[in-house]
Structures are given as C-alpha cells and as structure tokens.
Design brief:
Oligomer: single chain
Order of helices and strands: HHHHHHHHHHHHH
Radius of gyration: 21 Å
Largest sheet: none
Helix content: over 70%
Length: about 280
Amino acid sequence: MKGARAFGVLLRNEWFKARKRVAFWVALGFYAFFTLMNHGQPFLERSEGFRLPDIWTAVFGDESTMVVIFAALTLVLLSATEFGWRTARQNVIDGLSKSQWFWGKSLLLPVVGLAFIGVHVAIPTLLALIRTDFAAAEGSLVPLSVLQAAGGLGLAFLSVAALAFLLSLVIRRTGAALAVWFLWIGPIESGMLPALVRRFLPDQAGWLEYLPFTNGFPLLEFRNYDAPAYERYAAAVEAAGRTPSPPLDLTWHLAAAAAWTALLVGIAFILFRRRDL
C-alpha cells in the first residue's frame, strides 16, 4: 500500500473497528447525554444568553475540559485493548507492517476527537438555533472565531490524547494506562509538580503553564479568540470590582500543543517499534 490509498485503507480499518466497539458508542452516548443535560436547563428556562451567537462563550470554556477527558479516555479504551485481544498481532499477520499498524492506530486521535468535539458543539448549537431570533440577530451567527476556537479545542485534545495514546501502546493494559494518565494530569501535573517547582525553583516556574494538560486551558476559552467576547468578560469582571486579565496571546500555547502532539506520538512510535506484539 502506498500514498493516499494506504491512508484511506488504514482510516477505514480503524473506523470499522471503532464503530464496532460498544465502548466507543457508550462513551460517546454518555457524553452526548451529559452535554444535553448541561445545556438543557438554560434552554428550557429560556435564558437570555442561550441563542446564537451568544452561546459560543458557553460552548468554548472551562467545560470543554470534559470533552478532552472523555475523548482521551475513549482513545485508551480503543487502543490498549488491541494488545490484550491480540488483534494488533493478527493485523500484522494478515499483512500490515508494524509501522502501518501504528500509523493506522494513530488515526484514532483525529477520529475520536472529531466525534466528541462534534457532539460537544452540535448539541448546544442546535438548541440555541431554536431560541435564536434571526430577524433580530446582528452580525454573523457563526463568526470566524468559532472555527478558531474549535481548532484550538481540537489541538488541546490532541496534545492530551497523544499522552494517553503513548501510555496505551507502552503499558498495553487499559486499566493501568488509564491510571497512569489520570495520575499525570491530576496529582502530578496539576498538583505535586507545580508545588515542588514553585517551592524550590520559584524563578524557573514559567514553563509549567506549557505542560500538556495545563497548556490546553487557554485554548479552551472563547474570549481568547473573540474580541467582543473578551469585552463582555472584561466588563463583567470590572462590574464585580476586579481587574480583568489582559487578552492572551495564544501563539506559544498553540505551538506547544502541536509540539507535544508530535513529540508524544513520535516517542510512542519509537517505543512501539522496539517491542514485539
């Protein structure tokens, strides 16, 4: 297999296996239910901001962390089980090279990401459409900043999911890979490591904000892409008697997310190639 044909075959293989897995549909269905419940209350209460384009601040924000976590967990469920069930070995016996198997499996990152982010965006968008008065709407209902925010969310997911993918292929046990992944994004990256660095190296703590999970937080906030959303945020903060944080330049965070994705997938490939199936 060469070129685009090989890519197409590998993508079809992974999508075929993913859509046959109950774990994929259960996780995606549960997240869809979670998203519907999360946005259902303001929809039923006819909240003033629950319409286009006002809804985008709620779609892209702190709650986007959940879609990153759910999608990364699903990636582990779809990847690590390939070794316990010996399907990875069987695929190679059936004609795939180890490299083809790996790069085919890596396609799960965008496939799973698109599925979960699609649900995350589509449900509140459809609900908001019902509450939108098109005659009274001013400006674009879906400005360019929405696409930018969706891209930032996707990149934040890829950098975190790449770590989950690496652990899945190295540990090869679903429970253990999930445990180590949660240990990193929780107690280590969000707790112990920052505390130790700020305690013993307070002048060298700037790099902490670029760790895989932490680096993604600024990429989730819609106000970092949309000037009117930032102005509303700043006005609300000032009205509460506080000083709003200045607009954030996402250049380095976007670059760090892309770098983490490439680095972690690259490490996974090197380690995978060195081990037998």
